[in-house]
Amino acid sequence: MLISTIYGANICVDPGTVNTSIFVNKKGVVLFQPSLIALKSNGSVLAIGDEVKKMIGRTPENVKIYKPIQNGVVVNFDLAKTMLKHFFSKVFRLRTPLAKRVVVPLSTGVTDIEKRALHEAIRQAGLKNVFFIEAPIADALGANIPIDEETGRMIVNVGGGTTEIAVLSFGGIVTSCCVHLGGEYMNQAIVKHIKRNHGMAIGERTAEEIKIKIGSASRIPLEYMDIRGKDIISGLPRSCTVSSQEIQEALAEAVEVIIKNIKDTLERTPLELALDIMRTGITLTGGGSLLKGLRKAVSEATGIPVQLAGNPLEGNVLGAGKIVIDHNLWKNLSVVAQEAR
Fold first, then answer.
1. Taking the model in full, what pTM does it have?
2. Do the bridges between strand 37-40 and strand 45-48 make them parallel or antiparallel, or are there none, so unpaired?
3. 3-139+315-339: CATH, from 3.90.1720.10, 3.30.420.40, 3.40.50.2300, 3.40.50.740
4. What is the mean pLDDT of the chain?
C-alpha cells in the first residue's frame, strides 16, 4: 500500500490478553481496561472491563467471566466484538460506523486467519479501516528506541499471554520469536505451587498479588506474605504464609523459558547486530517485565546489559501512537503498515 494511506489514522487500539488500551491523537491513552467480560447464564452481558476485575473470584453460579482475546488472538469472536464495541463507545460516539483509520499492533506469532478474525472483530465493533503494524516495532517506539538506525537493538515484551522477542535494525525486524508464556502463566504457576506445597486453593487474583508483592526472577531479600484460600481437603477457608524464596522457585521455569528464547534469538542474530546489542543492551517492556529481578536474571544469563522501558504497561499503544502523530516515521521505517482485508 502507499504510505499516504495511513495519514488519516489517528487512533491506535491494542487489544491485549490482560488489558485493552486505546490511544487517540492529541489526547494520548484514553482507555486502559481489563480485557474481560462477564455474562449471566442467559447470555446477557453483566459487566465489561474494570467492573469485571472486581468480580473475579466473587461471582455467583449464574455468572461467568470470559477472556475473549488471548495471546493476541480472538478466541471468542462475538464476545470480543461486544467488548471492543463497549470500549469504543466509551471513547467515541459510534452512532454510525467510523471511517477513521485505526492502527493495531500485531504479534509476529499471529497467523493470517487469526489476523483476519481480529480485524473483523474490530471492524464489526465500529472502526472500519484497520491497519496492522508489527508489535515489536510499536514496542520499540514506545520505549524510545531509535529503530531507524543501522545499530542493532533487542526488545523483549513480556505480556500477559505471550513473550515477544525481536532484534531490530534499519526500522525493521531482523529476527524474532513469540512464546505463548507471560504473566498469566506465572500466575498459574503460583496457583499450582500453593496447591501442591500448602494444600490450599487460591484464585488468580491472589496469585497476581503474590507475584507483585514477593515474586521474583532472581534471589531477593527474604520476604513473607500471609495469604488466604480454601483447604483442598476440608474445603474450609484458611490462611498460610509463603516466602519470596518459594515463589521464586515457582516462577523459575517460566523465567528459564523466557531466557532460553532470548538466547536462541541472539544465536540467530547476525554477528554485527549481536555485537551492537552487547553495547546497546536488551530492553524489557510489557507488564511481565515488572517482575522483580527479571532484569538481573536476563543480564546474568546473557552477559548483556538490560534496561526497563519507561512505560512498560502502555508502551505498545504509545509506540503505535507515535506513528499516527508523526507521519514522517513511515518514511524512515522499512516496514509499512498492512491494511487488513
1. 0.91
2. antiparallel
3. 3.30.420.40
4. 90
